[in-house]
Amino acid sequence: MKINTLSIVLYFSACIATILFNTVGQDGYMLWSKIFIVPSIALYYLSTTNYKIDFVKAGFFGFSFIGDIYRLISPNNFETGQIICFLVSYILLLYYIFPSFIKINLKHKYNVLLIALIVFLLTTLAYFILSLKFEKMQTNMSFLIFYSIILETLLCIAIVEYSRKATNVTVNLLMSVIFFVFSDCFYIINKFYLAFNLFDFIQIFTQVFTYYFVVNFFISHKKEMVKLD
Q1: What is the pLDDT of residues 143-200, one digit of tens each?
Q2: For residue 129, what are the contacts with CB-CB under 8 A and spacing of at least 6?
Q3: DSSP state of 39
């Protein structure tokens, strides 16, 4: 069996195991199964691209992996550390896509208006979620506001890019960021505001499978850049 086939099978197996363990309330097994998710999908990316990777993608995989296992590293105080890891991952992804986005879109007035509308709607949504009373939350609220701004910017870029031209690159980028948003929103609501099994399922499902879309975005974007060269 080829490395990329083996790694993608391991990835989906780890994702399904994580969802099942989380659903039946086996948090210990769920945390250990999550260990295999990012390494397996990172190996899939490496084997698909002849083991070539830059520091941005390596950093994204690295901080995402630490974020996924931070609860094992610090079981009694993991919330802030986990958020920092995923925030760095989002910033690296934003750093990867932002230059070309600015170059392409700010030339067109239509895209500027669309960006303004999306920012307004997303800011309203972020304000509504962050205005809820999260009595159990240990992380500073100003820190979460910055986190939401970065995620909001990613979603804005993904929507505008998809509306400009629906390609394999933009579809995977949009799906990645939507899954990020769903995972984070439902995690906060389920843990700190209203615990509900469906919210918990949506959160863990979107979290583990978002990496599949991110990697496909990286691969398809790389192919597109090669064609342009």
Answers
A1: 777 888 888 888 888 888 888 788 898 899 999 999 998 998 888 777 767 777 888 8
A2: 148, 185, 188, 189
A3: H
